[in-house]
Design brief:
12 helices, globular, Alpha-Beta Plaits, four-stranded antiparallel beta sheet, 2 domains
Length: 270
């Protein structure tokens, strides 16, 4: 299947992630993180891209971004190319640094945006890099401490706009944000639980690209176009949205076993 188009109109808000090739570390130390941070600080303002949340982990990065007047891919290409050059030169590495192109998905609504800000900034705690939410307020490689008023904002971080998602005043917003951050990870908000709205967007996008009838795709139709669209949707929903197999199969009008056979996948927890 050709690369699917990005829903990238000016003003669109997207969850963006970048991973190291073969899940290797993108950042071997804080010196690498500082170089990447400097690149974000230059490129995102120049491209008029607003950032609601960000975190730099060891082998991946999460960003929640609003597209400026130019395609988001332009900004991401500038960031990735410059950092890959730095990484290869500093570490004597050859070849790719990032795993394919960056991943992205459209933010569905305001509730989705709030959940994503929480999810992105909880990453260091969930991964065990930071011991607690209280300690996260002192960790320099995410936007959480700026949102809580515990540290300076990154030059690219739209703190005021991010806080406005949680309350009418900074004080009220920070109180609500702290409450949400302390809730356990079972709360809705991670990419593994995006729900029906994100899947509907994916189905519509793939059907348009492949010229498939959406009703036939959802109804288990057996035409070549419908089968190809279902396979593409299943792969993307599994790998990028990380949705449960039972949800994907039900949406596509097929059994999980039929879906696994079509995409050559192994069963997983659903």
């Amino acid at each position: 299947m050709p690369r699917r188009p990005r829903l990238d109109a000016p003003g669109a808000v997207q969850h963006v992630w970048m991973r190291g090739v073969d899940r290797r570390d993108l950042f071997r130390d804080d010196a690498d993180r500082r170089v990447f941070f400097a690149r974000l600080s230059r490129v995102l303002p120049e491209e008029r891209v607003a950032c609601f949340a960000w975190v730099v982990m060891s082998n991946h990065v999460h960003l929640v971004l609003r597209t400026g007047r130019r395609p988001l891919a332009r900004a991401m290409h500038r960031i990735e190319t410059a950092y890959a050059g730095h990484f290869n030169a500093r570490h004597g590495h050859e070849g790719h640094v990032f795993d394919r192109r960056f991943g992205s998905r459209l933010v569905v609504d305001d509730g989705d945006l709030r959940n994503l800000i929480r999810y992105v900034h909880r990453n260091p705690v969930s991964a065990g890099l930071v011991r607690s939410i209280a300690a996260l307020a002192r960790w320099p490689w995410s936007g959480h401490r700026a949102l809580c008023g515990d540290g300076p904002a990154a030059p690219f971080h739209s703190v005021g706009e991010a806080l406005a998602c949680f309350g009418p005043t900074p004080r009220a917003a920070r109180a609500e944000l702290r409450t949400r951050m302390e809730r356990p990870d079972a709360e809705r908000g991670a990419p593994s639980d995006l729900g029906d709205a994100a899947l509907r967007l994916l189905v519509a996008s793939v059907c348009r690209e492949l010229g498939a009838d959406e009703r036939e795709v959802r109804g288990g139709g057996r035409s070549r176009e419908a089968s190809s669209a279902r396979a593409a949707i299943a792969r993307i929903a599994r790998s990028e949205l990380v949705l449960p197999d039972v949800v994907i199969a039900r949406t596509l009008g097929v059994t999980r076993q039929a879906m696994w056979r079509r995409i050559g996948a192994r069963p997983r927890g659903s």
